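To illustrate the input format used throughout this study, we show a single complete record. The first block contains the structure-token representation of the backbone; no residue identities are included at this stage. The design step must infer an amino acid for every position from geometry alone.
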């Protein structure tokens, strides 16, 4: 089960998902994205955010195991994972959900879900950002 402060509900591709508020630093426009080589097709590139060069990852593309859409969204969620920062590109930040999550059924189609929350829109996956973020590293700007 997931607890904590709650979750920021964001639209990521075709899905509504929850990001743990304890790991959300801010919602912002990540600015220009600079392409970098990556084996992960969901990596848009890097952006300079608050003086740091950070990976910019399209969350919807990552969750759907596909490449980023051609158009960049003007909305990102800066998250901090074990002292490392990462910017997740999303289509919308919709609301904050303060209810506790429920356990994920075994064999779930979303491997990064730490739990689910029942809302008027149905079950919303609550993401385990630590598992997701372990794939990306931060580089300090010069």
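Output of the design step:
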């Amino acid at each position: 089960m997931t607890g904590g402060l709650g979750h920021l509900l964001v639209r990521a591709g075709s899905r509504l998902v929850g990001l743990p508020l304890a790991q959300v630093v801010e919602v912002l426009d990540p600015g220009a994205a600079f392409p970098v080589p990556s084996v992960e097709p969901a990596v848009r590139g890097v952006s300079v955010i608050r003086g740091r060069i950070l990976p910019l990852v399209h969350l919807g593309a990552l969750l759907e195991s596909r490449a980023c859409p051609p158009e960049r969204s003007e909305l990102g969620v800066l998250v901090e994972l074990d002292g490392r920062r990462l910017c997740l590109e999303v289509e919308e930040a919709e609301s904050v959900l303060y209810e506790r999550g429920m356990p994920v059924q075994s064999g779930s189609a979303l491997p990064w879900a730490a739990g689910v929350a029942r809302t008027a829109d149905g079950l919303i996956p609550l993401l385990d950002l630590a598992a997701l973020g372990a794939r990306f590293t931060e580089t300090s700007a010069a």
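Structural context for interpreting the output: The first helix runs from residue 59 to 63. The radius of gyration is 14 Å.
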